[in-house]
Design a protein that fits this description.
Layout lengths: L1 H21 L2 E3 L5 E4 L6 E4 L5 E6 L3 E8 L8 E2 L6 E3 L4 E6 L5 E9 L2 H7 L6 E6 L6 E3 L4 E4 L4 E7 L4 E8 L8 E2 L2 E8 L4 E6 L4 E5 L4 E9 L11 E2 L3 E7 L12 E7 L2 H10 L7 E9 L10 H4 L14 H24 L2 H25 L7 H4 L31 E2 L4 E4 L4 E6 L4 E9 L11 E2 L3 E4 H12 L6 H15 L1 H15 L6
Parallel strand pairs: 1-3, 6-11, 15-17
Antiparallel strand pairs: 2-5, 3-4, 4-9, 5-8, 7-14, 8-14, 9-13, 10-11, 10-14, 12-13, 16-19, 17-18, 18-22, 19-21, 20-27, 21-27, 22-26, 23-24, 23-27, 23-29, 25-26, 25-28
Length: 523
């Protein structure tokens, strides 16, 4: 009996430990509060649709998970290029905690249906767990913390410290995996669907995030050379090329496509430092970086609609109106329209494009005026009409006016700094700025900074960003290694530091090595 009593406490303790470990795996219903134990033991929450939450926690927390049957559509995606994106899960998952910001190794795991992937032509590598932005306007894809398990058909977000938010499984219907880059060139057109947010990135990292209200196409190319006559005072171009962006809508008719776009220009830190040194900037100083644009000239010739439209004619009394005067008025109006059309055809392609709408309206007005004044019984005005006065460059009345289409947009002669809020993307080393008119040319500019160093800590400014030369040097080293931390260099520096701190130990080690190599003398 005493022996049984000695075993009883051990049995109870073992039973309690096993119950505690199994208690970390919880089958939880939606809209049910669950506990996250704060003893740094793994918490695993399993939901009815086989989605899971796994995390360690440093403190006792509670979590509540629900489903949203009508989430934001999957065509509002940022953080990943390529298109189109489709929704893979029927509902999104909303997670709320009571301030759990100290989680460790948190993961959100969502199941993916292989039949759905096959139906949409999506590979497992092109699946993501997207998080809804705080303002509910876009799904954010975080490729750096994405993980896909093809064995159990799940996609995850990993290495998270907090899990509050709304999440949904989405897929990308593209052949490429990872970064989808578009080559430069006028033959490489990118189609924008006109709904939601789309992102496109080009071969060197030039990136655009576009929210348009109608379908459109975009061509982007690089143009060699930046003339000093294109620049304003106190700034210089970092590179000797420009990004030329052309759409099929916004540059032709103003405000036709009310879009919102963020352009991101890649920053070569070594080139920025070289340019700064050539400007006389010291290594202890700072520089100002910004983005400048050459926009499209909407009315290059300065013409106005009233100057091209014919003057309104007085109505004549029907009793005194003769067919001859009617035919003369019709012929005169046709000659005016033909003269305007010929002037537009002789102009450059860009000028014809800007004034084509006004020319067309003037022609329509000129042809409609005599038709309104002519009596119903009269013959057609263009049949035998002859002008009462000789018109300059008369054209046959039976040939309709020709309005040639523009082949190239006419840009402003100089670059104008974009004064919107500018942000430095330290992860991808890009300068980002929002623009309202996408068409035009873009360059990265540099100038001597007049602001304090404290301003550079924010990473953004209304008129560009301020960055120190020391920060640029650090970025240049990171770019040289592709963003990989140089652990090999840290090892070498650590070894050198230890050797410098213990020179006596090094001498003793060398002496022992010499004695070990010395041959043994035999008697």
């Amino acid at each position: 009996m005493p022996r049984m009593q000695s075993y009883l406490p051990f049995f109870l303790i073992s039973l309690g430990v096993n119950h505690f470990v199994n208690g970390q795996d919880q089958n939880v219903q939606f809209n049910q509060v669950a506990n996250l134990n704060g003893d740094m033991q793994l918490n695993r929450l399993i939901f009815p649709d086989n989605s899971k939450i796994e995390t360690f926690s440093q403190s006792q927390r509670q979590v509540l998970v629900n489903q949203n049957p009508a989430p934001l559509t999957a065509n509002h995606v940022v953080g990943s290029t390529g298109q189109p994106f489709v929704q893979l899960s029927p509902n999104s998952m909303t997670i709320s905690t009571n301030g759990a910001t100290d989680l460790v190794a948190a993961q959100i795991e969502l199941p993916i249906n292989q039949a759905t992937l096959d139906q949409n032509g999506i590979t497992a590598d092109n699946t993501f767990v997207a998080k809804l932005s705080s303002d509910g306007q876009a799904w954010v894809v975080m490729e750096g913390i994405k993980s896909v398990n093809t064995t159990d058909s799940t996609v995850r977000l990993v290495k998270m410290n907090s899990i509050d938010g709304e999440y949904m499984a989405i897929g990308r219907k593209s052949v490429e995996t990872g970064n989808v880059l578009t080559p430069f060139g006028t033959q490489q057109s990118v189609n924008i669907t006109g709904s939601g947010i789309q992102e496109v990135e080009f071969a060197d990292g030039f990136r655009m995030s576009i929210k348009a209200n109608m379908p459109m196409s975009i061509n982007t190319d690089v143009v060699n050379g930046v003339s000093t006559s294109m620049l304003s005072q106190n700034v210089m171009p970092v590179n000797n090329y420009r990004y030329l962006v052309t759409t099929n809508l916004a540059g032709v008719i103003p405000n036709l496509n009310r879009m919102m776009t963020v352009v991101e220009l890649p920053m070569n830190a070594n080139k920025v430092m070289q340019t700064a040194l050539s400007m006389g900037v010291g290594m202890n100083a700072s520089v100002s970086l910004g983005v400048a644009q050459r926009g499209v000239l909407q009315n290059p010739g300065g013409a106005t609609q009233g100057g091209l439209s014919p003057q309104p004619q007085k109505r004549q009394k029907r009793a005194t109106t003769s067919s001859k005067s009617t035919r003369a008025a019709a012929s005169t109006s046709t000659a005016i329209a033909a003269s305007v059309t010929e002037a537009a055809a002789n102009a450059t392609g860009t000028e014809a494009d800007s004034s084509s709408a006004s020319n067309a309206e003037a022609t329509v007005s000129a042809e409609s005026a005599p038709a309104e004044a002519a009596p119903s019984s009269g013959p057609p005005a263009a049949a035998d009409a002859a002008p009462t006065e000789p018109a300059s460059n008369p054209q046959p009345a039976n040939i309709p006016p020709q309005n040639p289409a523009a082949t190239q947009l006419l840009l402003s002669p100089t670059f104008t700094p974009i004064t919107a809020t500018t942000v430095l993307d330290t992860t991808n080393n890009r300068i980002a700025v929002p623009v309202s008119q996408l068409d035009g040319e873009y360059i990265l500019t540099i100038g001597k900074s007049t602001a304090g160093i404290a301003q550079s800590e924010t990473g953004q400014n209304q008129n560009g960003i301020t960055i120190t030369m020391a920060e640029l040097q650090t970025i240049a080293q990171q770019q040289q290694n592709g963003g990989v931390m140089p652990v090999w260099q840290m090892m070498q520096d650590f070894m050198s530091q230890n050797q410098n701190q213990n020179p006596q130990g090094q001498s003793q080690a060398r002496a022992r090595a010499v004695r070990q190599r010395r041959p043994v003398a035999h008697p």
